[in-house]
Amino acid sequence: MLAELDKIHKGALAAAAQVIDQAGLEEWRSQYLGKNAVLTQSLKQLGGLSAEERPQAGQKINQVKQALEAAFEERKAALQADKLQQALDTERLDVTLPGRAMPLGRLHPITQTLRRINAIFAEMGFQVYRSRDVETDEYNFLLLNFPPNHPAREMQDSFYVEGGSADNPLLMRTHTSAGQIHAMREFSAESPENPPPVRIVLPGMCYRYEQVSARSEVQFTQVEGLAVGEDITFGDLKGTLTDFARRFFNADVRTRFRASHFPFTEPSAEMDVECFVCGGKGCSVCKHSGWLEILGSGMVHPNVLRNGGYDPERYSGFAFGMGPERLTMLRYRIEDIRYFWRNDLRFLEQF
Ligand code: DAH
Questions:
Q1: Same domain, 316 and 276
Q2: What is the mean pLDDT of the chain?
Q3: Spacing of C-alpha 16 from chain mean position
């Protein structure tokens, strides 16, 4: 029987060496180690052996079984290694292929415009001053020289919110001009006798209870500007804003100032730039006038200076306000303001 077992052992090893794949190896296992394998069957023959032969034969069967199990594992590892090598040989890894691009977000077109405006004024020495979105009637209107029931209030239909008092209600700011008073008071509080000059821009969201249309939205951004100090003249206003237009549009854009009215400035003016679509000849964008209105401005009204803590006998200043949506619409010839706050990626991804 021992000789028989040696023969099984040798035969099995020889067969294992012939196996070329995983399926073949499984077949080999059931043939040599399975329930009906000769080796398993030989266990049953142990009973027929003599008492001396039996332990020896039993031991031998176990040895062969272990040897075959080891051979199985070895062959399995070898087959796997072969397979890997084959894959490495045949499947080429092209390290020159471009990587997969990560989808990148981007800044909203209005944020881009706001940042450009801020950057241009920063170059001219203006600081960015942030102010609140929820305002009191006092800051949004009264201190800016809009007395109660003044008709100019009517141009700024407003969203009132809970929390104010009957004579000083709270509202969502209708313009960034409210920040002028906050800023001046903050500056002048530091040195009431000798308040420091102010040179700031105030960017931010504004809110009006408007009929939504292609030209007006209930929320929009503004950039306000304010310069207060000694000897500030209308010439400074014109020079600063014309320089802004040159930096924002192009170096030789022409500008013009038209008399206007705002309660918080005196005198007041609107600034137009020559239409950059038609070069001033007249087209549908400039409504055939050759000019595009881009901002309101003026010399700070003495009452407003006083409300901010600056003595109008000694200090003067200029202010302006512009709408980044309008500037962006003109620049890219966007025809409907409602696109900006709709979150439609087909629109936003163009910027
Ligand atoms: N606050 C004005 C508005 O929302 C815009 C404006 C005009 C601001 C003239 C100014 C200014 O500071 O001087 O219509």
A1: yes
A2: 93
A3: 62
